[in-house]
């Protein structure tokens, strides 16, 4: 009887554990664009953008997709996008021309609202609310580029106080996830020659910088590629690694709690370009070209759950829907 009870208990635990593991419901969008821009609104509505000037939108949970080319710019890679609803979105390019476009009619037409010079390269976009948003760009003249909008993306200006950049320091536009913004300030993480965490406080209008010595760094292909925040204790989860060594899993994830930086004991299973927090389950999900991992303990340890490659992963407002985008027009929604 004891053996039967033990076997039944083991089977039940295994079944429950398996049932709790996430998986991707995959969608193939029209076209084969590399989709690094991603902005989910809900379980039903999600926008994406990427190479060839591509924009995409679903309003029925991924069953069908509307698509087009931003203002006919079929040679531009729009790696950053932020959507407010099914009608309004702002998209920023990576590379040249360095442009920001806005649509207010569901993607039917796009208006150019900002353009920078020949040295500019946009890495990420974040909005705090429907009016206030920020775009992070690579350093120019030793200063990071940060643009601000106070009117929902209709116009943009340079932030008055810009942080210094170290020679060889870079941000990555792999998933438009290296920048975070909330009502208190901005946070962005970097890589390349050095990996650092930059914090800006709106109250004091000042920057604080810390070295991320436990993150892989020193080469142009290394560092932090994506960040997400954890509620409550105000922690940050940083993921990355080396995109030229996609299976290298050492020093590719950090957990930042206040002034304490924790190198996760069991990092994701290789280079990861995107990370997001699914509030509904308390999970942290990381994605990259080699697959996906999730953490159930606040990013202290990680478990692989998919070998499908994605570039970006984002949670919809409300924390119940998690979407991903990748190469060859691939999109996914987490099932749990």
Protein traits:
single chain; 336 residues; mainly beta; Methylamine Dehydrogenase, Chain H; 4-stranded antiparallel sheet; disordered N terminus
Summing up helix and strand content along with how strands pair, one would put the structural category as mainly beta
Examine the secondary-structure arrangement and name the CATH architecture: 7 Propeller
Largest sheet: 4 strands, antiparallel
CATH top level class name: Mainly Beta
Name the CATH superfamily classification: YVTN repeat-like/Quinoprotein amine dehydrogenase
Cα Rg: 20 Å
Q: Can you give the helix content as a percent range? A: under 10%
Our count of helices gives 1
DSSP strand count = 30
Mean pLDDT: 93
Tally of domains: 1
Question: Which parts are unreliable, with pLDDT below 50 for 5 consecutive residues or more?
Answer: 1-19
Overall 3D form: globular
Kindly, what is the distance between the CA atoms of the first and last residues, rounded to a whole number of angstroms?
34 Å
Task: Report the portion of residues in β strands.
Answer: over 45%
Would you kindly provide a written description of the structure presented here, covering whatever features stand out?
The protein is mainly beta and 336 residues long. Helix content is 6%, strand content 46%. It is built from one helix and 30 strands. It has one helix at 2-20; strands spanning 23-28, 35-40, 46-50, 54-58, 66-69, 77-83, 89-94, 99-103, 111-115, 122-127, 133-140, 143-149, 157-158, 169-170, 179-181, 185-189, 191-192, 196-201, 206-211, 222-229, 236-242, 253-257, 260-263, 274-278, 283-288, 291-295, 303-306, 312-315, 322-325, 330-335. A four-stranded antiparallel beta sheet has the order 1-30-29-28, with no helix packed on it. Strands 2-3-4-5 form a four-stranded antiparallel beta sheet, with no helix packed on it. Strand 11 and strand 12 (143-149) form a beta hairpin. The radius of gyration is 20 Å and the shape is globular. The protein starts with a helix and ends with a strand.
